[in-house]
Amino acid sequence: MSAVPAPAAPLHPVSVVGIGADGWPGLSGTAREALRAAEVLIGGARQLDLLPPECAGARVGWPSPLRPAVPRLLAEHRERRIAVLASGDPMFYGIGRALAEELGPEGLHVLPHPSSVSYACARLGWPLEDTEVVTLVGRPAARLAASLHEGRRLLVLSADASTPAAVAALLTSHGFGPSRLRVLEQLGGEDERHVDGIAAGWAHPPGDRLNVIAITCRASADTLRLGTVPGLPDEAYEHDGQLTKRHIRAATLGALAPAPGELLWDVGGGSGSIAIEWLRAHPSCRAVSVERDPVRAERITRNADRLGVPALKVVTGPAPVSLAGLEAPDAVFIGGGLTAPGLLDACWEALRPGGRLVANTVTLESEALLAGRHKAHGGELVRLAVAHAVPVGGFTGWRQAMPVTQWSVTKPSDSGARSYKGDRS
Q1: Distance in angstroms (rounded) separating the CA atoms of residues 249 and 252
Q2: Dihedral of CA 105/107/109/112: which sign?
Q3: Contact by Cβ (8 Å): 415, 348
Q4: Please, are residues 104 and 110 in contact by the beta-carbon 8 Å criterion?
Q5: What is the rounded CA–CA span in Å between residue 149 and residue 324?
Q6: pLDDT for 232-249, tens place per residue?
Q7: Are strands 331-334 and 356-361 parallel, antiparallel or unpaired?
Q8: Which of 70, 74, 136, 367 falls between 20 and 30 A from 104, CA-CA?
Q9: Distance separating the N- and C-terminal Cα atoms of the chain
């Protein structure tokens, strides 16, 4: 099948103009001139309504969903001068990203306005560089959970007027009910308003849909502490015993070495702990957890939501069959099913050049298999043993957990990799 040709790019650079709640009066002279000169004005209904009659270009509202419509609208008006309206800074969680992906920086003339985050930090006296920003626009509220730490200052970009109440409920359910919330509405506009309260007792009705939520995180005394490095407490997970325990998990994530933007296959997901802590390593990390048991697969999803990484993709079914068609990974962890015919070969074949494969086992049969692969491919073969102090009568002794054999290896950079297509025999 022949590829569909890309739509022709506009003949003139597209002006991308940031506009705030203060509307036309808040724009610079350069931004106003770009909007006056435009023959086509594209934006949301609220943004277009802020423009005066002197902006005489044809007004085109964004359809829903927005992203697929971008190339079509640009192509439809390619011979005319286009201006696109954006909220605040177009390149900060704004339409500027999609436009840059389509046209490249040379095809754009970006005129930013102060973002809602800049306004919020100015109102609160918070240093912008020390303030973490979490967007819930088009994203589940569960992702906020990964950023909850005692004393941390967060700014949340709201999806709509219902977001503050949803955030208050999430904070309370995660043990951060004492946190202070300040909702800043219509920042920079004539109708700017601030609402203050505590998450556990949040009773304010929905206000303006254009709002930012400032959170000063405070944990309850009995809240389980979750750190930022691998090795979360086992109690953080719902599980049925199929859980890579804390100390082994930390060593395993160390061998997998997550880096921004990389994709992990977690094969034999169990409770999803390896994939979840891979995702918590950086917001841009991606992961797929493959689990044959539907009950466990649902549990993985619950754990991911609870621990702030709802983007975890869960595939229910046996490996290697369920690996078919998945994007080639940068790293693979095999925590179960090592003796399944073809599993190790499938994972090795799909792994990107330079990618890492880590496999753990406690059985002699699987250990023999890993020893053979270590001989063939190299890497590192280690045995991990953990003992816990326990009461022995009136004294204390060591209770040894089952030792774990771990094989970790990096695929040579000259090896091929592709999406796994399944058994081709």
Answers
A1: 5
A2: negative
A3: no
A4: no
A5: 38
A6: 999 999 999 889 999 999
A7: parallel
A8: 136
A9: 25
